[in-house]
Amino acid sequence: MNSWFTELQTKDMALSCRVTEILHREKTPYQELAVYNTVPFGRMLVLDDIIQTTMVDEFVYHEMIVHVGLNTHPAPRRVLVIGGGDGGTIREVVKHQEVERAALVEIDGRVIEAARKFLPEISSGLTDPRVEIIVDDGISYVEKNKNTYEMIIIDSTDPIGAATGLFEAAFYRNVAEALTEDGLFVAQTESPFFNRDLIRRAYREVAEIFPLTRLYLANIPSYPGGLWTFTLGSKRHDPLKINKPVLASLNTKYYSLEVHKAAFTLPPFVAALTK
Ligand code: AG3
Fold it and tell me: Does 155 participate in catalysis according to the annotation?
């Protein structure tokens, strides 16, 4: 097979990779879903022609969206993941023994099914008995659940279509209310090269609602520009003041206590987005 998959990362820039096999393709009620096997990234999950996660670099994203926040909170018992139907975020959440209940609220049940079938290494955590899977709209779910979670993780697609509401002030306010009094949240907030306005606006809105707001970075080569941001909003605990050890049982490949701290060291052009 000699075909290529191309993601138009911005309207003027593309990432192409050689596909060895089309494992799955379907039109769900929400989007076009595909799983390809590729030479550079191995199996990859693609939604509406946008790369969501790949076997080669998924660990960076999933470890960093989860462990920074969970290691910051002294006793995270209930965790909510919005989006993340592939299960990679949940897989990292359930590595924390103190987590008693982890809810996954994914709007498109087909993403969960495709991940179970074609990405078992990523979706493995979905079978953990502490996990509750809810196929629903995350925006209305957080509105209905108040004062419940120590941590909320927003593992969304890019801010286009249905996901735009996950990057808005009204949603962040509902997230704050769904958190317990010392809760915190982390959202993936795109590229500091190509989504500066979005990052700046999200940061400002979170900072208006949460006493503590921090931006941090990780390297994810299959995403536009490779360098990626996460925005953390916290009611009490500061990710820069953690003194929890990193449990060996987390078994991480990117996250460590040093990386946790280093991730908040922002190059000036990124720090400028927080001012
Ligand atoms: N969420 C998607 C991150 C955005 C990727 N953007 C892009 N390739 N243009 C990842 C979900 C993984 N659980």
Answer: yes
Residue 44 CA to ligand 1 center (angstroms) comes to 11
Residue 58 CA to ligand 1 centre (angstroms): 10
Burial 233-268 (b: 16+ CB within 10 A, else e): bbbebebeebeeebeeebebebbeeebbeebeebee
CATH of domain 3-54: 2.30.140.10
What SS3 state is found at 19? strand
Tell how far the Cα of 157 is from the centroid of ligand 1, in angstroms: 5
Q: Of residues 57, 86, 155, 158, which has the active-site annotation?
A: 155
In this prediction, residue 209 carries a pLDDT of 98
151: helix, strand or coil: strand
In the CATH scheme, what is the homologous superfamily, with its name and number, of domain 58-274? Answer: Vaccinia Virus protein VP39 (3.40.50.150)
Predicted pLDDT at 248: 77
pLDDT at 1: 65
Residues of the chain with CATH 2.30.140.10: 3-54
Q: How far is the CA of 130 from the centre of ligand 1 (A)?
A: 25
Euclidean distance between CA atoms 63 and 247, whole angstroms? 13
Closest-lying ligand 1 atom to the alpha carbon of residue 156: 1
Locate CATH 3.40.50.150 in the chain.
Answer: 58-274
Ligand 1, CB cutoff 6 Å, lining residues:
9, 50-53, 61, 84, 86, 88-89, 155, 157-158, 188, 223-224
Q: Which residues of the chain have pLDDT under 50?
A: none
Ligand 1 atom closest to 188 (CA): 3
**How many beta carbons lie within 10 A of that of residue 90, not counting itself?**
31
